[in-house]
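Input chain follows. Return structure tokens only.
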Amino acid sequence: IRSKNTKPELVVRSLLHRMGYRFRLHVKELPGKPDIVLPKYKTVIFVHGCFWHRHEGCSDAAIPKSRTEWWIEKFQNNTERDRKAISALENMGYRVVVVWECEIKRLDIEELKKWINSELKNDISD
């Protein structure tokens, strides 16, 4: 299972680059090793897969039928690790944006572009 350079992540990175944003990738020094870091905006972007990171209400976040207890524990550990990383980043003064895999699939490029721009522009006015 790939943890970086996933298809959804590449879509977001490509879009950000075309929009003129400059960023760093997978910064090991930051909690949670964010997928994308925009230093100028002090913003990090996590591109989360709905299955692994348990996107609430998403049909892609179903629990497998076999070894259910193991999967539930695995997913709880994943979401707890995500919560801790997000909290630590926010305490460091970073704005955290989570882009879900299903949103990338559902939105067309123009909608995704507007959404990302609005997320980042909100950061400037804060």
